[in-house]
Amino acid sequence: MPVDMKAFKKDLKDDLKAGREAFEGEFADELNELMGLSREEVDAITPDATDLQEYDRLIAVVKQASRHNLSQAQLVANIKALGDVAVSIAKKSGKLAALLV
User: Over its length of 101 residues, how does the chain's per-residue pLDDT go in tens digits?
Assistant: First the structure.
C-alpha cells in the first residue's frame, strides 16, 4: 500500500507542534525530569515490559496536561487513573513525586 506523504507530513507537523507546546506548557519541568529517567530506573518498577508501556502512557498524560495547562489536581488525578505502576514511575521524578504526596 503506498504511503500518503501529504498526510504523513501533516501528521508529523501536528505532532511536532503538540510536542513543542507540551515542553512550553505548565508542566514542562516535570516532563523534562520524567523524560530524563534512565531505562534502568523505569525497569526497576516491574520485571516485565509493563513498566515501559506505563512510562509511555505517563509521558503522554504529562505532555497533554502541560500542553493544555491543566491544574496540578487534574494532572495528579490523571496520573493516578493510570494505576500503581505509572504512579510508581512518576514518583521517580522529584517534581511529580512532590505533587503525588
Answer: 788 999 999 999 999 999 999 999 999 999 999 999 998 899 888 878 888 899 999 999 999 999 999 999 999 999 999 999 999 999 999 999 999 98
- Give me the residue spans of the domains in the chain: 27-99
Q: Which residues contact 74 (CB under 8 A, 6 or more apart)?
A: 65
CA–CA dist 44, 80 (Å, integer): 19
Cα separation, 39 vs 19, in Å, equals 21
CA dist 91 and 37 (Å) reads: 11
| Helix pair angle (50-67, 5-24), 10° resolution | 80
